[in-house]
Structures are given as structure tokens and as C-alpha cells.
Queue: 2 jobs
Job 1
Amino acid sequence: MSKELVSSIDIEAPAEQVWKVLVDFPAFPSWNPFITSAEGLLEVGGRLTLVMQPARGAAVKLRPTLVEMVEGHRLRWVGRIGVRGLFDAEHLFVVETRGAAGSRLLQQEQFSGLLVPFLSRSLDRGTLPAFRAMNAALKNRAEKASAARA
């Protein structure tokens, strides 16, 4: 069984500014309502330590592995809870240029494993709204930084 969550948002700031906000892990506690803490090196094969706060429920500490890093454009990690095949997740961020000074942020996660059918409603009610909250907060932060530079 698998499940996919997707959320995107258009941002009135250049893709470079959006990327800066997305990869500034030390600043996450000050603005990010979903990934409230993020540590680790942004290099393929590196382990990250993330604290994720769903819209409903308790925060979860995860240690995913970074599997893709395309500077300025894509960031992807994979992680699991328990053993492989129980509850696996692949998280992806894509930053795209839109127009002369705009961009779009896509946040997507693919879940698979035996527990997915039992956690599907929780993902819809807790995780997807948290994606949307993070996207909105990132938009706000990137647009303010872009306006301050102008």
C-alpha cells in the first residue's frame, strides 16, 4: 500500500531566495511550523535529524538519509519508522522559477509499507495541513526577505 501527499505554493520571490530559506536549517525553529528542528549536512548520503510537528498529534523525531540534492532546485530524503517495509517515506522539495521574479515550491511525500492503510487518515488530517502551513510560512519569509533586498 502507498499514499502520496502533495502541496505547492506560488511565491513572489526569486527561486534563489526560496532555496535559501528552505536550506537554512538553523533558522527553522524561528519560522517553520512543520519541521521545527533540522540538523545535518546537505550532502547526498548524509543523515539528517528532523523534528516534525503534524497539525494534529505529537512531534516526531526522524533520522532520514539525504538521497538527492540539486543546488537551488531539489532536495529529497528517505526515512522509515521501524524496519524497512513497515512505514517508509520519501520526502521531496522542488523549487521552480516562475516568471521574472516568482517561484513555486512543491512539497511531496510518498509513503509505503504495511502501516500506511492504518495511518492514512492521520496523514490527511495531520501531515498534509502541516505541509500547507510550512509552505505558507516559507512563502511569507521568502517574500519578506525579497522585499527587504529590493
Job 2
Amino acid sequence: MQSGSPATRGVADLVLVRDDFSILPEAIRDGQRIVAAMAATLTVLLARTFYVLLIIVGAAILQLPFPFTPRQNSILAFVTVGVPILVLALWIKPGPSRSGLLVQTLRISIPLALGVAAVALPVYATALLNGASVEMARTMLTTIASFMGIGALVLIPVAADEDGRVRMPAWMRTLLLVASLAVAYLLVLATGPGRSFFQLEPLPAEIVATLGVLAALWTWAVIHIHRTRVVQVGIDTLIGWAPTRALARR
């Protein structure tokens, strides 16, 4: 309490200004929002890191050309990590964390990374096997990975805007973010200066549409699998099983 002695205030972790307890609920929500924003940022960062690594390793095992150039990787990072983490930090829905921050992020980022690599790497290999140039195959890979990385953002819980001048439900804010990022990538792909700077090749409209539909179906499947909690339960079981087995060996 602020009215307490100086010695008590000096050792306290929290001092209530004006002895007002009414500020505590808001303070707790702000703390939950900060933790949720950290978890969302780590999830997006780790998922992209893991699936890029898996694609690179998979291409090396299959003896395919290196899948990304640094500039292609930069546009992939921009639309799937750079802009989303800034927006999600403002829009994230506060909520209690029931597990450690690392475990909470790995339960989502690992399945996402495996899912993206399972689709993107076959697209890259199929394009090369069908006679596409390395530059064209890399552009297709960057496109499908960008679309799926953007679609994966729907798994991040976004709060509704109930206090702003334009009130917007959570699903609409998520749709706005996903659509804006997809349009931004398509503008880069459709313009000569954008393709030249990011080392992308022009793709026929039917190929872009096919990749978009494939990414949309992938996103739909990810949403429904995530709702069943099957993958998360499996990861929790694996994480809990590993320490138990190590103790049993001792």
C-alpha cells in the first residue's frame, strides 16, 4: 500500500498507488497480454525458422538446388514474420498461460513447420522434375511458403476491437491481416521492380491460383486439426515421456 511505511514499500514487489485495488484487474490483463504477445511472436518466429530449415535439409537430402536465395528469404520473412509480429503484439488476446512459454510455443510451431515443409518441398521438387528452371521453382516455393505462413496466422488468438471508433470482431481483424499480407506479396510478384529486387520469376496466373488454393486447403486442414488438439496432446505426451524415460534409466 502507498500509505504503508517506506521500508515496506521498498521491499514490496508491487505498490498500490493511492491504495486503489481497482487497478489490479487491468494490470493482470496487461500482464497476460504481454505474455501472450511473447508467445505469439516466438510461435511465428520458431515456425518459420523450423520450416525453412526443414526445406533446406530436405532439398539437400534429395540433391536439389538450394531452395531459397537471400532476397527470396527476405520477402518470405517480411510477410510471414516481420509485419505479423508487429500487428499481433497490438491485437493479441490476453489469456492465462497454462504451461511454460517454450512448451506453449513448441506445441504450435513444430506441427506448423512440419506441415509447411510437407507441402512446400514436394511443390519445389515437382516443379524441377517437370522441367521448370531453378529460378521458377524457387519462385513457386517462395510463393507457396508465403501463402501457408500467412494462413498459419489464423491460429494466433486475436482480440476483438470493442473500444475503437470502428468496432471489429476478432475474426474480421484476422481476415484483414491475412488478406493484407497476401495482397502485399501478390503486388510484389505482379510488379517488375518487386520481382527484380526479390529475385522472383513471373508466374502464370493459373499457377498462382493453384498455389493459393493449395495453401487455402492447407490452412483449412490446419485449423480443423488444431481444434481436435490431437497434435498438441501428442507433443505434450512426448515431452512428458522423455523426462520420465530418462529418470527410469537412472
